[in-house]
């Protein structure tokens, strides 16, 4: 029976590691889709800025100045975020992404997010990191599903009853 428990624990560890690896690769896919959507928002903000700047009906008015300032700031913010995420090294992309996160763009990306099977090097690196991280966390925070250690010893905190066969010392 103990072998069965160890086998199930072994499978559970692998399953958790695989799930976390897939989640990490999907997070990188989300960042890629976010960056594409951010580029679309940037293009639209530039077009709006040009439209307002070239509108002869409101030329020189206070309303045009306020609108151009607002749109100009939006273009600058989007451009900085896009450039930062695009130029960030692979391992720092999540940090840069979180630092430049635009809630409106992120919400739209999440609503339209399509999971992928990413095979690019960066996604595979994130999958490997997730796999290793999950296996390490699983092994260090748990004695397994059934409390059985791989070496057959009892986990810390459990006591063997003295009257059980394992608790009695054998005399020679």
Q: State the helical fraction.
A: 55-70%
Number of helices: 5
Q: Name the average pLDDT.
A: 83
Strand segment count: 0
Helix and strand composition category: mainly alpha
Amount of beta strand: under 5%
Low-confidence stretches: none
Largest sheet: none
Radius of gyration: 27 Å
Distance between the termini: 29 Å
Q: Give the SSE string.
A: HHHHH
- Tell me the overall shape: rod-shaped
Describe, in plain words, how this protein is organized in 3D.
There is one protein chain. The protein has 172 residues and is mainly alpha-helical. The chain contains five helices and no strands. The two termini are 29 Å apart.
Question: Could you write a compact summary of the structure shown?
Answer:
Helices cover 67% and strands 0% of the residues.
Topology of helices and strands:
Blueprint: H1 2-53, H2 62-87, H3 93-99, H4 103-112, H5 121-141
Features of the shown structure:
single chain; 5 helices; about 170 residues
């Amino acid at each position: 029976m103990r072998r069965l428990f160890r086998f199930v624990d072994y499978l559970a560890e692998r399953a958790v590691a695989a799930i976390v690896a897939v989640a990490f690769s999907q997070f990188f896919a989300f960042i890629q889709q976010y960056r594409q959507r951010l580029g679309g928002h940037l293009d639209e903000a530039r077009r709006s800025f040009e439209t307002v700047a070239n509108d002869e009906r409101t030329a020189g008015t206070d309303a045009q100045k306020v609108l151009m300032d607002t749109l100009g700031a939006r273009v600058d913010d989007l451009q900085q975020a896009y450039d930062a995420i695009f130029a960030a090294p692979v391992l720092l992309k999540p940090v840069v992404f979180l630092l430049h996160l635009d809630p409106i763009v992120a919400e739209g990306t999440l609503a339209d997010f399509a999971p992928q099977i990413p095979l690019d090097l960066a996604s595979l690196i994130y999958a490997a990191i997730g796999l290793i991280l999950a296996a390490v966390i699983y092994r260090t925070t748990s004695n397994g599903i059934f409390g059985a250690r791989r070496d057959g010893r009892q986990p810390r905190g459990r006591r063997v009853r003295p009257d059980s066969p394992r608790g009695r010392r054998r005399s020679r």
